[in-house]
Specification:
Shape: globular
CATH architecture of the largest domain: 3-Layer(aba) Sandwich
Strand order of the largest sheet: 4-3-2-7-14-15-1-16
CATH topology of the largest domain: Rossmann fold
Largest sheet: 8 strands, mixed
Helix content: 25-40%
Radius of gyration: 20 Å
Strand content: 15-25%
Order of helices and strands: EHEHEHHEEEHEEEHHEHEEHEHEEHHHHE
Structural class: alpha/beta
Number of helices: 14
Length: 372
C-alpha cells in the first residue's frame, strides 16, 4: 500500500497557510524532496503548457512553489513539455497562459526541441513496438510530474499516466514519423480517417483544430495527409455533424498509454520521479483543445505521491464522490450526483489504464490517503 498526500481545495480560515499555495508548500515539505533529488541535479517539472484558448492549466503560482521547493534541496529545476503544435508557437502559447521564466522562476523549455523530433528510440513492450521518448526527459535524472486532472477525448480521464505517456513521447520521429510517436498510441498506427460528404457542413473546424495542418479543403473536398497526421482525434471530436470518423481500439489504447508511461519511467532510476495531481478547474476536455469549457466538478485539491497508480486511483476516488456542477457540460448531459461524471461524458472505460499500469508493475491501486 502506497501513501498519497492530500491537500483540500477548501479554505476554512483567512490565513495564507490555508490557501492552496500555502498547502502546496506544506505538501512539498512533508514529502521531503531531498530523498528524490540531489544538489545541483537537474529536475524536469513535466506539465502541459496549454493551448491558445485553453487557459485552465496548472496555474503558474503552483509551478513556482514546486520550483522553489526543489531549489531549497539544491536542485536545478526547469519546466517542460513536448511539442504539441509548432515549437515556437507552443512557447508563445505558454507565455500567453502565464508560463515563462519570470512567472515560474525557472526556464521553460521544449523537451523534444523546436521541431518536436529531438528524441531517443526505445524498444516497446507488447502493443508498442518502439517509441520516441523526448531526449530531455530521457536524459534528465529526476522529474516531478505535475498533472492537471480533466477529461480527455480518448482516455476519458487525463492525469499523470496520460501526462507522461503522451507528453513524454514526441509527436514524431525523424525517420518513422508519427508511427513511432504519439500516433502509435492514439490509434496504434492503424486509424484511417473517413469523411462523409453528405453530413459535412463545411464548417472547417476540423481543419482549424489540426495541430499539424494535415487537413485542408479544396473545392469543398476534404484532403487528408495521412503521413503528416499523428491521429490525435481532435478533428473527429469537433465535428458536430458527425461527418468524420477515426476508428480506434479502446482497450488497446488504454494499454498503450500504460506501456508508454512505463517506457518513459524506465529511463529513470528508482525513487527519482514524484507526482503532483491538481484536481482543479476539472473540465471535460484536454488542455490541448482550443477552448476551456467551464468545470464539470468542483475543485477538490492537490494530491502528491511517488506511486503513479496510487495517485491516479486516489484522484478518481475523489472525483467519484463529487457531484456535477450546474451550468456545465455535465449538467447539459443530465448527469446526476452518484454518477461517474468523466465516464458519462466520454463513455471511455478509463479505469483500464490504471489496471494496465498496475499489471506492468508501475504501482498499486491500494493506497493510504494522508490529509495535511
Amino acid at each position: 500500500m502506497s501513501q498519497v498526500f492530500f491537500a483540500s481545495a477548501r479554505a476554512k480560515k483567512w490565513k495564507y497557510d490555508d490557501s492552496m499555495p500555502g498547502k502546496l508548500e506544506r505538501l512539498l515539505k512533508e514529502f521531503n524532496l531531498s530523498k528524490y533529488c540531489g544538489p545541483q541535479e537537474w529536475v524536469a517539472i513535466k506539465t502541459h503548457l496549454g493551448s491558445e484558448g485553453a487557459h485552465r492549466i496548472i496555474r503558474p503560482v503552483f509551478l513556482r512553489k514546486v520550483v522553489e521547493a526543489l531549489r531549497t534541496c539544491g536542485a536545478k529545476p526547469f519546466v517542460t513539455d513536448t511539442v504539441r503544435i509548432k515549437g515556437l508557437d507552443y512557447l508563445d502559447v505558454a507565455n500567453q497562459n502565464g508560463l515563462n521564466h519570470l512567472s515560474v522562476g525557472a526556464p521553460v523549455i521544449l523537451a523534444d526541441g523546436l521541431y518536436g523530433n529531438d528524441n531517443i528510440m526505445v524498444k516497446g513492450i507488447d502493443i508498442l513496438n518502439e517509441i520516441a521518448i523526448a531526449s530531455v526527459i530521457y536524459d534528465v535524472p529526476a522529474m516531478v510530474v505535475c498533472s492537471h486532472i480533466k477529461g480527455h477525448i480518448q482516455s476519458g480521464y487525463a492525469g499523470a499516466i496520460k501526462n507522461i505517456a503522451m507528453g513524454g513521447v514526441s509527436s514524431r520521429h525523424r525517420e518513422c514519423g508519427w508511427k513511432c510517436g504519439r500516433g502509435a498510441m492514439h490509434t496504434l498506427g492503424e486509424g484511417m480517417l473517413s469523411w462523409d460528404k453528405e453530413k459535412c457542413e463545411l464548417c472547417y473546424q476540423c481543419m482549424e483544430i489540426c495541430p499539424l495542418d494535415a487537413i485542408k479543403f479544396v473545392d469543398d473536398q476534404l484532403e487528408w495527409d495521412t503521413n503528416k497526421c499523428w491521429r490525435c482525434g481532435r478533428c473527429e471530436r469537433v465535428c458536430q455533424s458527425k461527418g468524420l470518423s477515426l476508428p480506434g481500439n479502446e482497450q488497446r489504447f488504454m494499454r498503450s498509454l500504460a506501456e508508454a508511461a512505463k517506457l518513459v519511467l524506465d529511463t529513470f532510476k528508482p525513487q527519482k520521479v514524484i507526482y503532483l495531481n491538481f484536481l482543479t478547474e476539472i473540465q471535460p476536455e484536454c488542455d490541448c483543445m482550443p477552448v476551456a469549457d467551464v468545470p464539470v466538478i468542483q475543485d477538490q485539491g492537490i494530491l502528491m505521491s511517488d506511486d503513479i497508480v496510487s495517485i491516479e486511483q486516489a484522484s478518481v476516488d475523489l472525483l467519484l464522490k463529487a457531484p456535477p456542477l450546474p451550468q456545465s457540460f455535465a449538467d447539459e448531459k443530465q448527469i446526476v450526483p452518484g454518477d461517474d461524471i468523466l465516464f458519462k461524458l466520454s463513455e471511455r472505460d478509463y479505469h483500464l489504464q490504471f489496471e494496465a499500469a498496475e499489471s506492468l508493475g508501475l504501482g498499486t491501486r491500494s493506497y493510504e490517503l494522508i490529509e495535511i
